[in-house]
């Protein structure tokens, strides 16, 4: 009994205890295998990811388009007025806190890392000719692809379906169990396929751990590259020290909980992002950033459908699958964690309001950031040095190199380190909150259980810092996205079924109430003599 208490499982059912033990064991075994033979782990995971993208990259591209259409229809139909938690639910967070939590959990440090790496990579290795956009510079096309993948329609395709389904089924319809499998209740009865719900929850936990671990690893590597290359410090040791400080803050957040801990970390991170982007405008190649950004925005808006569905079927290689297919698979794997978290913090808000905060506002914010970061590294005098160092030393080194050759780059580097630290804290906070919630089926999981998951994620993040081959753990999420892609279709249909029934029931209740009021009014009116 004492062991279960220490693990935060004293009130858990046996299936939930087994879930915790199995998920922990699987991930620790994977970590141990990575320590013993990192090259074999890397080649195995990358091989699986390559197979998925080569043969199913087209599927993710098609699925994203289908999800976008269906989600937009739901948002702008009568279902868009449905309130998460029911018609009487009140918002739990103020608007800025809500937006901050949604934004920081949905992106992480990828805005900085991929904001530098993707445009540079596409310029260095563009799509096969003929290019999908004629008449545009390769720089504008590269940045337009970045907008497609991390701004819109990527934002609307993946997180929103899960957020809608989880919000409607778990909160509005009141299923009760705070688990990913709860979204299946409208389609498949748990007793019909024994073990299905448990396997879905286990897969969701493993995929979330894989995705967050990669983000932590990339973030740690980028922080180490900045500290080492920009400031000539003992990067690895100092990064461990920074992570130790982050760990202290994280543990404080675990005990403070969602309302104080995660909310305040997210708000601070949003502030730091704003300051760092403002400084980048001042010290960067400002005119070029805005000119290229506007040019790329024109390509993005005018060719959005073309770029979103681009597959280059008559060309050799798998360029589109390795970019758009990869991004969509990555978003699909993350959608389970992010979508359920967004639903959790959106109680009291309508689906249409959730669309605004999860899609519309982040679209503007990420467009601005990628416009500035992409224009910065693609500018003359920046592009070639950054491309050369990325080819030689990887993506984190590319971020550091861009800072090295920027006026007041050291000041900007300090801000970037704080932004990355903020993303680490918010991602770690949110991830362990949701992993623990999914495991226990409780929307407010206890701090002890969350701390264990936090320790596991920190271990994986440090593994990615110590062993560069361990960064291939990202391939786990991309690979698991394939079965999850089918789940997305199922839960979106399930949310439609529940929403339709809920709207019909509400309409019948309103009609019945109106009838009762009419009868009361008729009975109380004076008779004519």
UniProtKB/TrEMBL annotation:
Main subcellular location of this protein, as a coarse class: membrane
Location in or out of the cell: Cell membrane
Entry membrane topology: Multi-pass membrane protein
A molecular function (GO) term: transmembrane transporter activity
Statement: the UniProt record of this protein carries the keyword Membrane: yes
Domain of life where this protein originates: Archaea
Segments traversing the membrane: 18-36, 56-76, 96-117, 156-175, 196-218, 238-258, 270-290, 325-343, 355-378, 410-438, 450-467, 473-499
Annotated keywords: Cell membrane, Membrane, Transmembrane, Transmembrane helix, Transport
GO CC field: plasma membrane
InterPro entries: BCCT_transptr
A Pfam family annotated for this UniProt entry: BCCT
Protein name: BCCT family transporter
UniProt organism field: Halogeometricum borinquense
């Amino acid at each position: 009994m004492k062991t279960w208490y220490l693990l935060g499982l004293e009130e858990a059912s046996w299936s939930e205890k087994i879930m915790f033990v199995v998920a922990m064991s699987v991930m620790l075994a994977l970590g141990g295998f990575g320590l013993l033979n990192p090259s074999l782990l890397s080649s195995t995971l990358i091989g699986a990811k390559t197979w998925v993208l080569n043969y199913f990259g087209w599927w993710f591209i098609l699925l994203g388009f289908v999800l976008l259409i269906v989600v937009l229809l739901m948002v702008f139909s009568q279902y868009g007025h449905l309130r998460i938690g029911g018609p009487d639910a009140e918002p739990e967070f103020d608007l800025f806190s809500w937006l901050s939590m949604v934004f920081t959990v949905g992106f992480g440090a990828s805005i900085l890392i991929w904001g530098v790496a993707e445009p540079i990579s596409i310029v260095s290795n563009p799509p096969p000719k003929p290019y999908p956009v004629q008449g545009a510079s390769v720089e504008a096309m590269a940045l337009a692809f970045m907008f497609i993948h991390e701004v819109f329609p990527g934002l609307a395709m993946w997180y929103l379906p899960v957020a809608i389904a989880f919000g409607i089924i778990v909160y509005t319809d009141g299923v009760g169990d705070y688990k990913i499998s709860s979204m299946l209740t409208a389609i498949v009865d748990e007793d019909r396929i024994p073990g299905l719900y448990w396997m879905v929850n286990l897969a969701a936990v493993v995929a979330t751990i894989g995705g967050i671990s990669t983000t932590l690893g990339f973030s740690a590597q980028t922080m180490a590259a900045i500290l080492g290359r920009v400031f000539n410090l003992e990067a690895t040791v100092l990064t461990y020290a920074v992570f130790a400080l982050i760990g202290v803050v994280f543990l404080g957040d675990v005990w403070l909980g969602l309302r104080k801990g995660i909310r305040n970390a997210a708000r601070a991170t949003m502030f730091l992002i704003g300051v760092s982007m403002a400084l980048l405008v001042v010290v960067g190649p400002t005119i070029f950033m805005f000119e290229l950004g506007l040019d790329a925005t024109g390509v993005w808006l005018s060719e959005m459908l073309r770029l979103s569905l681009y597959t280059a079927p008559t060309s050799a290689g798998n360029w589109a699958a390795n970019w758009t297919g990869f991004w969509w698979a990555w978003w699909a794997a993350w959608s389970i964690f992010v979508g359920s978290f967004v639903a959790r913090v959106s109680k009291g808000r309508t689906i249409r309001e959730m669309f605004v905060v999860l899609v519309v506002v982040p679209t503007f914010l990420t467009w601005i950031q990628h416009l500035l970061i992409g224009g910065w590294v693609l500018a003359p005098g920046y592009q070639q040095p950054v491309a050369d160092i990325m080819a030689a030393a990887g993506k984190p080194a590319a971020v550091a190199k861009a800072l090295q050759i920027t006026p007041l780059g050291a000041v900007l580097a300090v801000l970037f380190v704080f932004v990355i630290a903020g993303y680490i804290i918010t991602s770690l906070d949110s991830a362990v909150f949701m992993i623990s919630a999914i495991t226990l089926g409780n929307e407010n999981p206890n701090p002890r259980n969350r701390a264990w998951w936090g320790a596991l994620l920190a271990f994986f993040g440090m593994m990615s810092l110590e062993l560069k081959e361990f960064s291939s753990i990202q391939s786990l999420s991309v690979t698991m996205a394939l079965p999850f892609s089918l789940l997305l279709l199922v839960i979106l249909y399930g949310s439609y079924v529940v929403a339709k029934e809920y709207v019909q029931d509400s309409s019948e209740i309103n009609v019945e109430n109106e009838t009762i009021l009419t009868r009361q009014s008729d009975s109380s009116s004076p008779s004519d003599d």
